[in-house]
Amino acid sequence: MGKKRGFLITFEGIEGCGKSTAVRSIHQYLGNLGRTALLTREPGGTWLGESIREILLNPPDTEDIDLTEEAFLFCASRAAHTRKVIKPALKGGYDIISDRYLDSTFVYQGVAGGLENDELDYLNRIATYGLMPDLTILLDLPVDEGLSRRRGAGAMNRIDKKAITYHSKVRERFLELADMQSDRIKVVDSSGSREMTLKRVKAHVDRLIQQVSDRKKKK
Length: 219
Known about the structure:
This protein is α/β, with parallel strands linked by helices. It has one domain (8-218): 3-Layer(aba) Sandwich (Rossmann fold). The protein is built from 8 helices and 5 strands. The chain has helices at 19-32, 47-57, 67-91, 102-111, 117-128, 143-153, 164-180, 194-218; strands at residues 8-13, 37-41, 95-99, 135-140, 185-189. A 5-stranded parallel sheet has the order 2-3-1-4-5, with helices on both faces. The two termini are 17 Å apart. The model has no long low-confidence stretch (mean pLDDT 92).
């Protein structure tokens, strides 16, 4: 009998919400539970994805990237990421912890950017090969607090530098998605201490593991 399929757990949120800390901590937490986990990110995860990441976040000052180009670049990175990293690792029994996945495209290039949801849904279905996360953690905090954290962390990229009205739309859209897909997307308040945020995240991860265990026992 082959290895059991792992989980795909994705993290989303506005800039400065604490994703980088959370994904590293949950990766270590799963390892402590005796599970084999892989930490990855979008855009990125592959040679193509990392190259696209640099183009998207730090383009030359003389270049501009419009929303359509942006959406295709993100989805090209996602397609390579899903095919070359996520699907093989899941099949091999790894849990995948990904810093962003398909929801970011609906938010950043969708309502916050202006592209139609049906167009983005079509692109995402191709780019993900129909693969949906088992659990998505949406780390949420006020926009001004998130941007303050980003400024305190050092260099600001092209998206960080957008107007606060844009970042407010991003937050609103993430919360709308969470409301529409509450079975998958769990909102975690990340405005407090790091310890409290991680405690809340771990509770959702533990619940996912327990739910799968319970289903197996019923078979």
